[in-house]
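Request: Could I get any protein with tokenized structure?
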Amino acid sequence: MTRRPLGSDGCLPPTLRMGTADVAYHLATRGRPLPVAFVFGFGGRAPTLDAVRARVAERAHRIPSLRYRIERHRPVFRRVDGIAVERHVYEVWLPEDADEAEAARLMLTRPMNTGTRPPWDVWLVHGPGGGHSLCYRSDHALQDGVGAAHTARDLLDDHPQGGPAAHHASWPTRRGLADALGDAVGGFRAPTVKPAFDGPSSGRTTLCRADTPLARLRVIGRAHGGTVNDVYLAALSHAVHTWHMKATGTPHPPLPVAVPMSVRSPGEECAPGNRMVTARLLLPCDEPSPRQALARVIAATAQLRASRRRDAVRLLLAATPRALGARVGTRMVNGDVVAAPASSVNFGTALVHQGAASRSAAVFAGVAAGIRCLTTLTSQHDTSCLTVVHDTTLATADELPDLWLAALLELERA
């Protein structure tokens, strides 16, 4: 059943109750904004700042996720009436030596809106080689990556339509419920050994990325009976295996990651809040063969789908008092329990702004709660982008995107 979109009757409630995941993010960051950003890369002539501001001014008031801020001392979102676009839309020029990932790094480090304004902004970023980027950014306590995708589309696209698929809820199996409970209990056990990722965080992050044709991932997946997401995770597993072997000469044990899964229903595309759950997955980084790593990932994700784990976690959270559920959530996704969130978002057709189609898209977030790394795969039209956000103490983590591409090449030859 499709829900009636929030605000479709012309009215938005003055406050909205924060969900369990929203409160968990707020607790994990101790109330500091944690950026979730979508960066779209373009070639050719850039639009003017005035033109971008005019587009945002025309549409922002109709998008519910842009109309709320986080109440300082209460777990609620409070509506804001009136949006001054000059305080939300900015322009910046990158230095001559900037690479293609510099616009994304900027989104990790620039201070975000706080206080009485909704915590989002849009940036027109001019690159040194004539290209430009359009960046949409929000606070993760108010919006997840799929919500950011829909909001960016509705706010910036010439003819907004499409985007990540909605989730249609179903009843989980007993196995799904048992595994979801196991994940929750596992968050309170002793820390998991993750030698490549354990250690103190500096609080300073950076970012690296690699692009590849989406068709390449699809062909590999079809050849082995898996999905694009399976190929992404298996190649990531082998990249970590190679990276750790190079540094230490020893295999890395299976790596626990948190896999975010959207539960955003039809009609909730641009609703405020995090409509997502996570599942703990072990990446087979001990496996020297990328083909065998892919087989193990396919088996693991097939079990997630067959048991309908996504809906099991959704139902458990709905049945748990919000404060308790948020505390459990902070235990399930932190640096003691998982090495990294590993997410995947298919944006769909290319974003078109002022007549120009974006060549690439990347969604990512900052890191918190002792986690020193985060990976995302963003697919748009015919291109997929791997983004690795990492703490600067992981000094050689910028090797991971190239090692991921090398793993894809091995899978193609398998």
In short: The chain has two domains: 15-156, 174-344+370-413.
